[in-house]
Amino acid sequence: MRRILTLFLSAALLTALFGCGSGGDDQLVSKTPFPQFDEVDTEGGAISSDIFAGYDAIIVNFWNNGCGTCIAEMPELEEMYQEFKDRNINLIGVGADSGEGEEQLAFARNVLKEKGVTYLNISPSPERDFYKDFVSEIFTYPTTYIVDSQGDIIGAPISGNVKEQIDTVEARLRIALDGKTPD
């Protein structure tokens, strides 16, 4: 009886570790819709979820004013933004708390200026659904999403410094770009 129990537990463990799918890693990456939004950026310009259609993929980085890691990685994100432009890949930031008041917005603008950031940064209003239903649910900063041109999030959120996880970013970008038809 003990031997049968050991075999059963071993089989269960192997199934849990290796799964029973026959496909490659691409099949394990989910696609879920990024929430619709109609907001302003930190300079007061209108920005909406329509932005996704203009690019093959967009890297969306959520940060807040109190996150030292978020602020420290901004120059690296700026470098990525400049490098990815030629590939029709955009990068936008979301200053999660920058829309909570004038003081928070002024602080965010100052940080962006000091770090040399030129990519757009959304300043979500706590009164809008995008903030209430999505931004307020983010508990780890920085958090980054890869979104394809259809507005679908590719895979799970990437928590922590993006450049340290560039292999994950590139793999997700390949998945987003694979859905494109050649011109």
Element order: H for helix, E for strand = HEEEEHEHEHEEEH
Major pleated sheet: 5 strands, mixed
Name of the level-1 CATH class: Alpha Beta
List how many beta strands DSSP finds.
Answer: 9
CATH topology: Glutaredoxin
User: What is the beta-strand fraction?
Assistant: 15-25%
Low-confidence stretches are: 1-27
Average pLDDT number: 86
Count of alpha and pi helical runs? 5
Which keywords apply here?
183 residues, two-stranded antiparallel ribbon, globular, alpha/beta, 36% helix, Glutaredoxin, single chain, disordered N terminus
Would you kindly provide a written description of the structure presented here, covering whatever features stand out?
- With 183 residues, this protein is α/β, with parallel strands linked by helices.
- It has a single domain (28-178), classed as Glutaredoxin (3-Layer(aba) Sandwich).
- The chain contains five helices and nine strands.
- Strands 6-5-4-7-9 form a five-stranded mixed sheet. A two-stranded antiparallel ribbon has the order 1-8.
- Residues 1-27 have low confidence and may be disordered.
